[in-house]
């Protein structure tokens, strides 16, 4: 084919092209040609003064981004309950969450099972919402309250937590850690917290603050006193990284799955026989899991949850150690699944679907409060006039090292006696700051009491109770007058 000069397409200059494109497609074509944003260099913003050979001194001016009635730090079980309850009671609530989803250990930690649940109205609302998604898995036995301890699907728990906060009007920000806390002139009240996120460094003020971080991070940043762990270095119970796995036929593995049959079947009393049968299989592959009660839960169809590792003597406040422990635990999960797959039979084709984004700490900073729940309270089944909930979960101390784990992996009590006991509001009010509250496993208690109330059923009930108490204080404008007694 011969192309003459008149057949060749006309060559347009840039201005003519933009003009014709705009005529055809509107202003969007013009925007496309000059899209983007140019940010000039700010070299002065990156300067800091040296403060010695091993430190720098930063000159920071952090913008105040907003004010609220209540700021909740941590969007896990306690934080969701506290924020939603306070907002429903009329408070303006802002919540900051470290991870990329709400739910904390329920979701980013892939806990997958709820202990000591169904004891508060907020518990029961979560249950109804999980049931709506078909994401609650109950034991089928009439001999037990099936909603007290049960398994759930973590992805649907994300929707539940988001729906609760959105409907209540809670303003929440994800991937937004709180990095500093400042007090007012009196020194008795937290006035401002600082976050660092994709929005940069921002300051936020509130009348009251609730530490639902699990680890007690906010209270520690505010300079409150606390106890931590069992050993002198602050470490105590081991941490665990959970995972989701898929198998070809869960029914073929039912003797190894703790909720098949029911965890609380009257014939077996607990799920331990299934765990020990599973452990025997792992040992057949040549593996000794770091957690000697390895557990499988059935979530849906052939989707299972796997809890099979312990990380011992792991500090809460050492990012390097936490990183190394997470990597080790993830590799152990991979090794376990690979060995099981190699066994063949019903294990053939087992695959990891996901590992948790965060390792699950059992320990926490136990922030000094107006009352400390003690071993003696646990033994006598203490009751209090200002009780927020009752812990019905027994003392559960996981083996503190590998040797102790082999002797008794979980459920240890160090000789302490247990009766269901009340947790008072006073244990949720910081001793060292009048407008700072705690809810969850960072409340004021000793090591033994903490080994009972640390489970998420208590966290939810405490969060709801603290959220309601804070909202009432704000309505009465008596937010700072909290008597020590």
Chain-wise SSE layout:
Elements: H1 14-25, H2 27-33, E1 49-50, E2 56-57, E3 64-73, H3 77-88, E4 93-96, E5 113-114, H4 121-132, E6 136-137, E7 150-152, H5 154-168, E8 171-173, E9 178-183, E10 190-197, E11 200-211, H6 217-221, E12 226-228, E13 243-246, H7 272-284, E14 295-300, E15 303-307, H8 319-343, E16 351-355, E17 365-367, H9 375-380, E18 387-391, H10 402-407, E19 421-424, E20 436-438, H11 447-453, H12 456-475
Parallel strand pairs: 3-4, 3-11, 4-8, 11-20
Antiparallel strand pairs: 1-2, 5-7, 6-7, 9-10, 10-11, 12-17, 13-15, 13-16, 14-15, 18-19
CATH homology superfamily name of the largest domain = FAD/NAD(P)-binding domain
- What's the CATH architecture name of the largest domain? 3-Layer(bba) Sandwich
Major sheet description: 7 strands, mixed
Whole-number mean pLDDT: 89
Share in helix:
25-40%
Report the structural category: alpha+beta
**What kind of assembly state do the chains in view correspond to?**
single chain
Low-confidence stretches: 1-12, 14-18, 20-25, 27-31, 479-485
Give the percentage of residues in beta strands: 15-25%
Give the number of helices.
Answer: 12
**What separation lies between the terminal Cα atoms?**
99 Å
Radius of gyration: 27 Å
The tally of beta strands, per DSSP, is 20
- Overall morphology: globular
**Number of folding domains?**
2
CATH topology of the largest domain: FAD/NAD(P)-binding domain
The CATH class of the largest domain: Alpha Beta
Can you walk me through this structure?
- With 485 residues, the protein is an alpha+beta fold.
- The protein has 2 domains: 64-234 and 363-475, 3-Layer(bba) Sandwich (FAD/NAD(P)-binding domain), CATH 3.50.50.60; 243-355, no CATH class.
- Helix content is 29%, strand content 19%.
- It has helices spanning 14-25, 27-33, 77-88, 121-132, 154-168, 217-221, 272-284, 319-343, 375-380, 402-407, 447-453, 456-475, and strands at 49-50, 56-57, 64-73, 93-96, 113-114, 136-137, 150-152, 171-173, 178-183, 190-197, 200-211, 226-228, 243-246, 295-300, 303-307, 351-355, 365-367, 387-391, 421-424, 436-438.
- The strands form 6 sheets. Strands 3, 4, 8, 9, 10, 11 and 20 form a 7-stranded mixed sheet that branches. A 4-stranded antiparallel sheet has the order 14-15-13-16.
- A hairpin with a 2-residue loop joins strand 14 (295-300) and strand 15 (303-307).
- Helix 1 crosses helix 2 and helix 3 (77-88) packs parallel to helix 5.
- The chain is globular, with a radius of gyration of 27 Å.
- The model is unreliable at 1-12, 14-18, 20-25, 27-31 and 479-485 (pLDDT under 50).
